[in-house]
Amino acid sequence: MKLLGLSREKASEAVKNGKVVVVQFGLGKLGLPLAVATAAAGAKVIGVDISRELVEMINEGRNPLPGEPGIGDLLPRLVSEGRLMVTTDWRSAVTKGDVYVVAVPVTVEEDMRPRLGALLDVAGKISEGLEKGDLVMIETTLPLGTTRRITSLLEEKTGYRHGVDFGVVHAPERTSSGRMLKDITESYPKVVGSDSPKALEAAVGFYSAINKRGIVEVSTSLAAEAVKVFEGVYRYVNIALANELALYAENVGLNVWEVIEAANTQPYCHLHRPGAGVGGHCIPVYPRFVMYDALKRGLDLRLLNAAKAVNEHMPLHVVLMAVKALNSIGKPVRGSRILIVGLTYRAGVREYYMAPSLRVLRELKDMGAEVYGYEPAAMPEDFLKLGVEKWGGEEVDLAIIINAYREVVEDIYRGRLPAKTVLDARGIVDLERARSSGYYAIQLGRAGP
Amino acid sequence: MKLLGLSREKASEAVKNGKVVVVQFGLGKLGLPLAVATAAAGAKVIGVDISRELVEMINEGRNPLPGEPGIGDLLPRLVSEGRLMVTTDWRSAVTKGDVYVVAVPVTVEEDMRPRLGALLDVAGKISEGLEKGDLVMIETTLPLGTTRRITSLLEEKTGYRHGVDFGVVHAPERTSSGRMLKDITESYPKVVGSDSPKALEAAVGFYSAINKRGIVEVSTSLAAEAVKVFEGVYRYVNIALANELALYAENVGLNVWEVIEAANTQPYCHLHRPGAGVGGHCIPVYPRFVMYDALKRGLDLRLLNAAKAVNEHMPLHVVLMAVKALNSIGKPVRGSRILIVGLTYRAGVREYYMAPSLRVLRELKDMGAEVYGYEPAAMPEDFLKLGVEKWGGEEVDLAIIINAYREVVEDIYRGRLPAKTVLDARGIVDLERARSSGYYAIQLGRAGP
User: Fold this and answer.
1) Cβ of A244 and B302 within 8 Å?
2) Which phi-psi region, left, alpha or beta, contains residue A133 (left: φ > 0; alpha: ψ -120 to 50)?
3) CATH code of residue B263
4) For residue B225, is it within any domain?
5) Cβ separation of B219 and A304 shorter than 8 Å?
6) Could you tell me the pTM of the whole model?
7) Does the CB of B297 have a partner CB in chain A at under 8 Å?
8) Which of the four, A181, A321, A382, B294, has the lowest number of CB atoms within 10 Å?
9) pLDDT tens profile B141-180
């Protein structure tokens, strides 16, 4: 059933009553939970992905995201009931949709240029099946202006008029790994924006059927893009602030962790935690969308530029601290054995994009260290790809803690980690306990011993 | 009764049972509510201030802070019961104290150097009455290291040893104008830090008697200084971020207010609101403490430097917007009549220190505008001092809204504000309503009409 032109109430009813066919592109960490939530709300969902392996797995009712609560229960049931089916055959899928959902990632090049290839490719595919009355919902976080670009592309390819024949809506996902389904359906209100009031009305109905926390309507697709991107910018700048304060604290002789914790007992203060840098598909990417756009406009965003400089300095600062730790036991980097605890951008999430560990790893390897990695979220093949040996309990000169893996910290307290020195870049080691267990231990954001 | 050496429980009991004499320096906007709260908790408080007028007023039981809830009820009672007395005669006061509380402000010079004169002067006065067992509590927000400097000064002047004969504690105030008493006694836990464990123990007892929300103990006086200063830095940098996003939004064609409001529906996002700049005794001052210290250390705090550049650009940006608004009605600045709504650093607070309005005012006057000020928090003499005419309803070409005075906004909606154009730098005017009431209206953080 086509939704464009329906009131929000009627659109919502249509979804709940199983009258709407959704064709969704992208079944990754975002896409699959989204498809599951949409199907669970009542829509018939056809998921499209390029990975044959993934598609087979899902159609067999097996869950490719074991770390996501709820998916394992819902997925097999939705698949067996025929409410969710997935395919690599986009050609047959695109002819069937009333609503098209886009959930393919956008990353950036080294020079911050957004990689829009996959997204524009999907838009092209949608154009081949688009019918009058259809809606296109873009869930991917986008550089400002991208929804309008896709709208124009669809108009050009189909000859249809936006807001009359079809509608494009930006409805940016607000999710975190490990709680995707909950985030999609109830953690936060859903933000939707469109340049067509008619499309917006129907989209509000569509998302009301999925998200219990309600809808935040904004005036344009541009505003919806900015909402999500600015959320990331807030995080990025505040991590930079924590990092700058950590560097200052080291110089002054403060314990930055203690200070931040005490400052945040005031409810208007939300100081973030420092660390070895910022990684992943989200937080370091969205500020780059803004910075790249500003660059093209000749606009000087000095705060964001400074935030980037500070955050990107952090892996090098960790390397310098590592050199000092080794120096304290009379060792140069060359030939030293170093364990990096945490290779992904965040503990427990198998995702390496822009992970600061990788920069630390590369610098230390370049200087001739023998580097081991401890990463419980990794698959065996990841170590090979990253060029680091999987740690098998070998004795090392230095352990650098980058991700919050508590089991390693427990080993330190029990004196069981076979390392001479410990550098805690995550603020999770009680230095006094580590030292009383015999380690030379230092921490980011504190003056050395 | 001397507190140094007592357990927290005994120190707290001593305060509640009226056995402790507190001599407090500074009875201003912070000091008076603090003295009232301390006396109300049970201590006998002798307040010292240099203003004869203020001292007379308080001793007559009259309330100099009518905008502070609770003071008007407590003050006359505490004074008449002899539990709070105030004086300009510091010499007789300093001989009587068990606990000395310091609440004199520290501001900064243009080059960011902290003005410590009044504080060091008070420390010198305290040294003349300091006895063994006394405690000194510094409530003023301090540049890092100042507590240690005052401790050394007291040791030198008295020959006593810190931590043995007397104790110095930093216990930074966490208060906002208009809710001082509530903030002191129950809004937030009290942060205390000392370089003497004995002094810290007694101070925890002292503040437990005053603050119901409990105590956050930090390891050193330096840490306590950093807690308060970093809270201010967080606010300052986040205001700079909001301002940078506002400038970007104007360029891109977004409504930054709409975007920020929607982004903050996600509970991890705390984007602040943009404006004409940052003023007052707190938020713009504390980052300067850090920046000045970093300068002396040869440390480059690029994020803070960028934040300052952005925030200090804002008054000039408002001036540029004003010029554009006048231009839209074919007027140069010279000879134009301009109303500035809000002269203080914040609506309703009679405080002009670093207020961005004053920079806007000066620039427009320098260009030959006839400037009027609307400021309900001002006393009549303030206008003369600021060099601006008090607005008496004269017709103007442009009204610039800098503080959140809603009555002016209501006048705009009713078409009763005698202004041709309106520039809203505070994000409180619904532009559509203003325009439908006949005004040419523009807003900071939005593309012009």
Assistant:
1) yes
2) left
3) 3.40.50.720
4) no
5) no
6) 0.97
7) yes
8) A382
9) 999 999 999 999 999 999 999 999 999 999 999 999 899 9
